[in-house]
Amino acid sequence: MTPLSRRACLTAAMATLLAGCGTGESDRSGRASAGPRTGTGTPPPARPSPNAAHALARSVPVRLRIPAIGVDTPVMRLGLAPDGSVQVPPITAHDQAGWYGHSPTPGQVGPSVILGHATVGAYGDGVFHDLARLRRGDRIAARLGNGTTAQFTVHTVRTVAKAAFPTQEVYGDVNRPELRLITCGGPRTGDGYRDNVIVFAALS
What is the rounded CA–CA span in Å between residue 28 and residue 167? Predict the structure, then answer.
């Protein structure tokens, strides 16, 4: 990750809450209701991986497939809103995932971050509704704009309180291509969900 993109990732992570859950609290622009990130988790020690030597060239993701939970979705690009909050996909009937454009593209060395809604208000289940059902060993395929596909294998699935979001574990540097999928989960609250579901996967 370049110094600029890393700084953008960490700044956004510390300043805002990646909601990824459409329960009606997002505005028409697709921005999620923001809250402070106070996670203090530290990443596990970096593990040398032969996959780091086989990193893919930078290419924006255009589609995401997760066979274990029936996900096959287009991927849009997300950035930062003027107030510094991280954008999320808009609340629509045709829900789709969004790649955070300040993170590496899938297959580059570093953590590529993709967000999706758990629910999309009156439209029902979101594209990442069943993300918490993923298990170690499940496969994820990210098709890239250059025609290649980055294949990932899940190694960790966590549900964490939003108030204790593990910022460093999600956005911190790693020495191999990895993927982070994020949505909401846990108990419903008055304006959304209490927790985040985070899937960690490595390039296969």
Answer: 27
